[in-house]
Amino acid sequence: MIAFLCSADMQLIQKTADLSAYLAADEVIDHHHPVLRETAARLWAGVDDSYGYARAAYEFVRDAIPHSADADDPRVTWRASDVLESRTGICHAKAHALAALLRAEDIPTALCYQRLAHDGGGHAVHGLVAVRFRGAWHRQDPRGNKPGVDARFSLDGERLAWVPDPRSNEMDYPVLYAEPHPVVLGALRAAPDRAHLWTTLPTAL
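-> structure tokens emitted (205 positions)
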């Protein structure tokens, strides 16, 4: 593993040394799918460089794909192309979609996680991404803003949806994954609807 310092001075750990792993496509981050390619092409319009594209992709996923809990949408998505086509998903699904859009344009992107208090009680694992620019990883949270949440794309200090509170047994997980964590993906794939998923989300990694 390779370790880096993120902008919050937490040591991020690159699980896979080969940076190309963070550009790969798979069943979940299916960035060769036509809907990903078409969306990426649209997002490039009006931007000048990869930074502008990354910001546009982030804001698209944050703002144009409602978080299913905020929208009270019962559907569960997990594959990036399905998230874009259905325009719904929880934090993990939206992170998969953003990772796919960024990797589609050769921007290394990792999946990473936090443990946060769950609105159904207890704790749940929250999903976000880290994007690599300027020789470093920068965490971004595309879950979608709402009252009390004002996440933004930033390479100069993190602007995440939430900062974990250790007093509430919340935490940042430092590992940067090239693929979705299996316990997270397993819960998403097994859930028939969001109400069921809310009871089976992993509480920790």
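The longest helix spans residues 50-64.
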